[in-house]
Amino acid sequence: MHVKLSGDFSTLQEGLLLIAGRLGVQVLSKPEDEELPLRWERHKGQLEAEWDGKQGTIRYDERHHGFRAFGLWVEKMRACRTDEGQYAPFHVQETPQFTTVGVMFDASRNAVPSLPALHEAFITLALMGMNQVMLYTEDTYEVEAYPYFGYMRGRYTNGELKQIDDWAADLGIEVVPCIQTLAHLEEALKWEFAAPIKDTGDILLVGEEKTYAFIESMIEAASAPFRSRRIHIGMDEAHQLGLGNYLKRNGFRNRFDIMNEHLHRVVEIAERRGLIPMIWSDMYFRLGSRTGHYYDLEAEIPQEAVQGIPQGVTFVYWDYYHDQQQFYEAFIQEHFDLGRPVVFAGGIWTWNGIAPNTGKMRATTEPALMACKSLGVPEVVATMWGDNGAETPWMSAWLGLQLYAEHAYAKQVDEQRLQERFALCVGGDLHDFQALGQFDETPGVAQGNPQTSNPSKFLLWQDVLIGLFDANIKDVPLAHHYQRLAKRLSNADTRNSAFRPMFRWYTALAEVLAAKCDLGVRLKTAYDQCQHRKSESGTAGYEETLQQLNTIADELVLLRASIDSLRRLHREVWFAAFKPFGWEVMDMRYGGLLARLDTAFDRIRQYTAGDVESLPELDAERLPFDSEFGYRNGTLGRAAYHSIVSAGSLFKPV
Question: Under a CB-based contact definition with an 8 Å cutoff, are residues 439 and 485 in contact?
């Protein structure tokens, strides 16, 4: 398709060239016979794209509206092309529902998105009509005065952040630095330089002047590379605020007072630099709740505490959990009652385990965004956290971002249009991305995985000799589920060529899980039978059960090769999307798994050869996994890596 542009598009030119290149459209600078004329007009309110049979017209207000409208125009032109090579007339009109619709990239939980990956992502976001990126960096940005801040963690340099901002600006995207100035600073505070400014292991020491010198350096470094005058200063989940070194120095104090005093100091630092700060809202609601719960509609925040909140602060209400529009509306109103601007932050559920929880994402996103539209929340952002190692690549969650984008331009989202828009903007098959949720939506898990079970994670990493989750999955037909999923994904890499490495990895993951999921259960059963028959001299079937154990040992050899291949596929995905720092964590996880498979093989062979009388690891009774997210109705359980692989003191300092 050859397009000749005219009219008011000069502020879009750089971005349009990038988007046109993505869509395979050639933008002409001089008339040619096959050109399609496209005129641009600035227009308040709605965005429009049309073709009258001879000329195209795009009417737009903000720059990001123009980029979305161009994508709509190209999509409709292709759909309206007749067999004779002509284009049937059409007119498309959309009404923006929010002033800002954005995404938060997590660059702090082990994986720092690479610059080329971000550049490609920005093009997709602009095509969707999104206009904001929050870059969440706890310690992964350069602060010159503190060389250990982000040391060996893949931190962005000042120059890299400027490059990111320049790319985003060309595409109508505001990049907002998102940092932490109270809690969530464990990786920074673990170094000796931080001893004088540490309240607890992850919380800064309020009231200490060295703390505010540190925060001033952080704010300056984080904001300087960006055009935006907004900054997210964090302050969420400071559960132990005032209860560590602060308590030793000052005794117990009202925690609302501590929070407000600190917030005033940090806001003053930000405002001196002409910055407009925003914070996560949860600490005020937690402190006002008798249970310490964030989503407590009975929470009472004292009026004096509300009055003590600086006027220039925006509250970011984060909620990734509720599936009822009524709840979101009630809690949004609670935020409005505080008398400060409100931003809503929902979740794309990239942090469930090793695959996105698409069921939970869809169940929570729809009511949340409908509530925001109902009550007039002007800004929404989709968070993409990478908890516990960032095992799930953020590219797997484009479906959630497309859903946000479509909600941003329609009162209701039509499923067919969502699928069509996904194909154009992402260049992928919506159903294949949706299917990734099946890694954790297994038999034994409620439809949509509302309780966020993560069997794909614990089945991959758990030890075959220890089997901490084996009691949870006994008698659950998981092998058949993962075999079907592997078959379902077998050609997804072809259908989604831009995401070929990712779908090859996920297909291999399904194959590995099909082979490994019940291996520990079968091993324990065969071993128990051997021990029973051995204790009863002459019992028939003893040699047969020994052979079963040897067969399982042979399976371990094949499984080990499959897992090493899986590791290499995962590494390819990682290095295409992230900086190399952080992959060492994944290498250690895969390496630990491979080493334990070697040990399991040797232990089984020792037993079947008669070199040892028993295997204490297999003698131990299997109990249901017991934790906050443990085995209960509608879930098989959920855990982080260190809890999955061992009941010992893994990663604890003593």
Answer: yes
The gap from C-alpha 516 to its chain's centroid, in whole angstroms, comes to 26
Q: Which residues of 96-127 are buried (b: 16+ CB within 10 A; e: fewer)?
A: bbbebbbbbbbbbbbbbbbeebbbbbbbbbbb
Angle between helices 13-23 and 63-79 (to 10 degrees): 30
Q: What is the pLDDT of residue 260?
A: 93
How far apart (Å, rounded) are the C-alpha atoms in residues 66 and 170? Answer: 12
Q: Is the pTM of this model over 0.70?
A: yes
Distance CA 413, CA 267 (A): 38
49/60 Cα distance (integer angstroms): 9
Residues 6+ apart with CB under 8 A from 486: 507, 510, 511, 514
Q: CA–CA separation, 270 vs 259, rounded Å?
A: 16
Q: In the chain, which residues have pLDDT < 70?
A: 29-33, 537-540, 628-631, 651-654
- How is the beta sheet containing 26-28 ordered, strand by strand? 26-28, 2-7, 36-42, 56-60, 47-51, 90-94
Cα 129 to Cα 627: distance, rounded to the nearest angstrom: 42
CA distance 177 to 104: 10
Residue 653 has a pLDDT of 60
Of 286, 239, 234, 300, nearest to 263 by C-alpha is 234
Under a CB-based contact definition with an 8 Å cutoff, are residues 319 and 368 in contact? yes
Task: Give pLDDT, residue 536.
Answer: 77
Query: Residues in the chain, how many?
Result: 654
The burial class, CB within 10 Å (0-12 / 13-18 / 19+), for 79 is exposed
Residue type, 476: V
Segment holding 347, helix H or strand E? strand 342-347
pLDDT score at 199: 97
Copy the structure tokens of residue 164.
Answer: 């990111």
The answer to whether residues 415 and 327 touch, using CB atoms and an 8 Å cutoff, is: no
Contact by Cβ (8 Å): 311, 283: no
DSSP 474-498: TT--HHHHHHHHHHHTTTHHHHTGG
What is the distance between the alpha carbons of residues 530 and 539, in angstroms, rounded to a whole number? 10
What separation in angstroms does the CA of 94 have from each of 127, 370, 406, 427, 500? 14, 17, 10, 22, 33
CA pair distance 400, 382, nearest whole angstrom: 8
The string of pLDDT tens digits covering residues 489-537 is 999 999 999 999 999 999 999 999 999 999 999 999 999 999 988 877 6
SS (H, E, C) 422-478: HHHHCCCCHHHHHHHHHHCCCCCCCCCCCCCCCHHHHHHHCCCCCCCCHHHHCCCCH
Instruction: Report the C-alpha gap between 204 and 197 in whole angstroms.
Output: 6
Beta strands in 70-181 (DSSP E): 90-94, 100-106, 132-136, 174-178
DSSP 247-265: HHHH----HHHHHHHHHHH
Integer Rg of the chain from CA: 27
pLDDT for the residue 526: 96
Q: Which of 604, 610, 637, 579 is nearest to 440 (CA)?
A: 637
